[in-house]
Amino acid sequence: MRPAVPSPAPPAAPSVKGQITGKHVLIGVVLFFGLVVGVDAFFVVKAYSTFSGQVASNPYEAGLAFNRTLALREREAALGWTAEAAVPRPGVVALRMKDKTGRPLSTLSLTGTLERPATEIGRQVLAFTPTGDGWYQAGARLDGAWDLRATARNAQDQFEIETRLVGQ
């Protein structure tokens, strides 16, 4: 029997200059995510360090206006008035006002505006006229969705109405 001759080791694959290996991919991924985390951390620190904590540029005045709004809402609740909005026919906006006992209020002065929910383009100013039994009407272009903001007044009271209308 012949002694076994060890087989020669396979020759090492020659290294090709510029070939991407697993080591290169690992380094690239780590550097990429390290850069992303570093930039995010920079922006978080800058945002936190430059935020004054102040939401309104005039917080005192905004607080006073909010207090006036709360007082108005309390007066409106005490009045007990209710408003019903409708689009009885194309091109007409109607509001029906009632007091706390359900009787129609026919001697009010009503003004209002129609605005698009997402833009200020096409804002319409409304002047309502009484039509009887607590109903008030104003002409308006109603194509699609509109936000109605109206104010009803008499000699001493005021009531604000906000609702969404959808026309043809």
Task: Report on the architecture of this protein.
The chain has 168 residues and is α+β, with helices and mostly antiparallel strands. Among the domains are: 22-51; 81-167, Immunoglobulin-like. Helix content is 30%, strand content 31%. The chain contains two helices and eight strands; from the N terminus they run H-H-E-E-E-E-E-E-E-E. It has helices at 22-50, 59-79, and strands spanning 82-86, 92-98, 109-115, 124-127, 129-132, 135-139, 144-153, 158-167. The chain starts with 21 loop residues before the first helix and ends with a strand.
Which terms summarize this structure?
30% helix; 2 helices; Immunoglobulin-like; 168 residues; four-stranded antiparallel beta sheet; alpha+beta; elongated; 31% strand; 8 strands
Helix content: 25-40%
The assigned CATH architecture of the domain at 81-167 is: Sandwich
Beta-strand content bin = 25-35%
Strand elements, count = 8
CATH secondary-structure class of the domain at 81-167: Mainly Beta
Uncertain segments are none
First-residue to last-residue Cα separation: 104 Å
Shape: elongated
Give the topology string: H per helix, E per strand.
Answer: HHEEEEEEEE
Classify the secondary structure makeup into a structural class. Answer: alpha+beta
**What integer is the average pLDDT?**
87
**CATH topology (fold) name of the domain at 81-167:** Immunoglobulin-like
Q: Biggest sheet, open or closed, and with what strands and sense?
A: 4 strands, antiparallel
Work out the radius of gyration. Answer: 36 Å
